[in-house]
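WARN no homologs supplied; continuing
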Amino acid sequence: MNGFNLSEWALRHRSFVWYLMLAIVLAGGWSYTRLGRQEDPSFTIKAMIVQASWPGATVEEMTNQVTDRIERKLQELGSLDFTKSYTSSGQTTVFVNLKDSGSVAQVNETRARLFLAQGRYSESDRAAFSAASVLEQGGESSLLAEALTTQGISRARLGRHQSARDLLLRAARIVDAAGDLETAGGIYLTAIEELHPFLPAAEVVDFYNEADGRLSRASEHSRRIRSCARITVNIFREHIQARHDLPVGGSFREDVKRYEAELIRGALDQSGGSVTRAARLLGVSHQALSDLIKHKHTSLQSVRTPRRPRRRSIIKKR
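OK structure emitted
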């Protein structure tokens, strides 16, 4: 008994076979017209160009002083695949190629670090913010911490110190929770290096203790630990010296007045002479601080910015 023969069956039912072929062709054509497509499909070119110029420099000077240093810095990028460079008199061009396995967020974080190395802090801040926004949804803690650290350094160098402090602390806590103590300690060192002139002495010490407790003695950060230790010691030395320099004597009221004047002077210096910003730093109203300077601490009037005369109202009083 012979089995079923498909070819024989098709030859006997030619009309039905033609009908099926025509139906499949029409269905395929209709489906093709419904395919999703974009006019400008989104994709990321994982390559960058870094250019630097030094007018008057020879090829050898450009190679040793500029090109080699740029390439060594680029080697720190975890997503780097390879680099190519072209150096001429007074100018160098480095072609940076990233690994194909990296995500768009990793590319943005790498771009942020390159912008940071070039001193383009606003662009670095934007690229790091974009990377952190994506990585935060993906749950990749180590990459998110890298993006937040880069963004924190960018904002510190843009003068946004409070925002930079919050970002760096958040990055340190993320990797700390993931068990990466070495990276967390390095981020605390970064906070000291970037923000120590703008932090209270006690907070600098806290950051140093956090870093010291997480980093081993044989850590790759040992040189940075020693540097931050010197910063911490110097800050405390200045803090203690400032306390010793405060004159003691006279009545209690005079001592309070003298200390109050020092606080107001410090706030005015930090705010560039602006009474409004100094009042915010001290946590008082603008009117209260203005009255103190005008009536109680008249010697500080030279420190504040000149008062602007109030414009006359265009509405006439009857």
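The chain has three domains: 45-100, 103-216+227-245, 252-302.
OK
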